[in-house]
Write a structure and sequence with these properties.
By secondary structure, this protein is of the alpha+beta class. It has one domain. It has a two-stranded antiparallel sheet. It has a two-stranded antiparallel sheet with strand order 3-4. It has a two-stranded antiparallel ribbon with strand order 5-6. Strand 5 and strand 6 form a beta hairpin. Helix 7 runs antiparallel to helix 8 and helix 7 packs parallel to helix 9. The protein is globular.
């Protein structure tokens, strides 16, 4: 039987209600499906894994190296987290202060932007970066540029990851490693979570989404 790869979609915010009138299997559909991850680890690993979160507000998360190690990472004991998505942080801007960040801070003041690849992001605010989809379907409704400068939305998800790290929502991905991921991606458009495993932009986002509701 061939393995099935399902690309994770952007999560609903936890405030979005799920009807209790639906049968149980349907009622958990939107959130349950969003929390199950079927991903291929990088260009070198080729390992299929499933990460299933805990019910309720907490999920089960793992480190980058644990995620790259395969299915056993999904059963790490006590690895709870409650990371929020880029969509959440773009709407609930009042929560930024708790993370010690300002929505008006320029992206380049926090994330290194010394390469040609990252230059278009430099003068955008953190809110502009987290608020917009820079991929092929970007509509240009936000204040940021309308070009596809970050088609996998790595910067967008890393801003959310930084907010999650600073607010203690995802201890498995500390601020130090958020910066390591960005610095590597800004230079090479890849990140290596462990020896012999290399993630491209899409792989990085798959991992980051696994830490977010």
């Amino acid at each position: 039987m061939k393995d099935t790869i399902v690309t994770p979609q952007d999560h609903r915010d936890p405030e979005t209600p799920v009807s209790t009138d639906l049968p149980a299997a349907q009622a958990i559909g939107s959130k349950g499906a969003a929390r199950r991850r079927f991903a291929r680890t990088g260009l070198a690993g080729g390992v299929i894994m499933t990460l299933v979160s805990k019910p309720g507000m907490a999920m089960t998360c793992t480190t980058t190296s644990g995620f790259a190690s395969g299915p056993n990472a999904s059963i790490s004991p006590g690895a709870s987290c409650s990371g929020r998505s880029p969509g959440y942080w773009s709407r609930w801007t009042g929560e930024w202060e708790k993370a010690g960040l300002s929505t008006e801070t320029e992206f380049s003041k926090v994330f290194s932007c010394g390469s040609t690849f990252t230059a278009p992001l430099a003068t955008q605010t953190l809110l502009e970066v987290v608020d917009q989809d820079m991929g092929p379907k970007h509509t240009g409704k936000s204040k940021g540029p309308k070009t596809n400068i970050d088609q996998d939305n790595v910067a967008r998800h890393l801003v959310a990851a930084l907010l999650n790290a600073r607010s203690g929502k995802v201890p498995q991905l500390p601020e130090r490693e958020v910066m390591e991921i960005w610095n590597s991606y800004a230079r090479t458009q890849t990140y290596s979570p462990k020896k012999d495993v290399v993630w491209n932009g899409a792989d990085i986002v798959i991992y980051l989404k696994s830490t977010m509701m």
